[in-house]
Amino acid sequence: FFAGIGGIRLGLELAGHRCVWSCEIDPFARAVYEHRFGRLPEGGDINAVQPDEIPDSDLWTGGAPCQDLSSAGKRAGLGRGTRSGLVWTWLDLLEAKGEEGPRYLLYENVPGLLTSKKGEAFRALLKKLDEKENRSEEEEEAYQIFKKQSGIAEKTLSKTCITFLREELFI
Asked: What's the pLDDT at 44?
């Protein structure tokens, strides 16, 4: 999701993973992606993607546009209708997939994700992910590391969420 020119895909493939589906709307990014990987992303506009189009996989990666979070942008936050707010569409697809959804999420964005709207944007994102009551021991361990490194005092996450900020790494 939000594949851009395929940077996350490339890194994961170099680590031995295989991409089964991708989504990108920007024509230039799609052209570079096709040149790099020999095929266009299967999805275009994330708003038009249907859950049944997405094959089963263990990991979903995404990084909604950063303009509304970046210190160089308007700092509008993650509101629906903003470019950065497309993360909610991604999470709506995750919810619609239910048990067929991935076990892991990797979400990448700028450090402004943590500070936009005085941290409300990131808290809202965590709250959405915080809907699962029971986690495996592995998920709990990953969450405790994430909580310690990020300083977030939430009690649960619905998926093991690896959040990569372009300047720091939180697990």
From this structure: 96
Mean pLDDT, rounded, for 127-146: 62
Cβ burial 139-166 (10 Å sphere, 16+ → b, else e): beebbeebbeebebeeebbbbbbbbbbe
73-91 per-residue burial string, b: 16 or more CB within 10 A, e: under 16: bebbbbeeebebbbbbbbb
Single out the catalytic residue among 19, 23, 66, 161. 66
Q: For residue 82, what pLDDT is reported?
A: 82
DSSP 29-96: HHHHHHHHHSS--SB--GGG--GGGSPP-SEEEE----TTTSTTS----S-TTSSTTHHHHHHHHHHH
Contact predicate 7/62, CB 8 Å: no
Concerning whether 66 is annotated as a catalytic residue, the answer is: yes
Between 54 and 159, name the one with better pLDDT.
Answer: 54
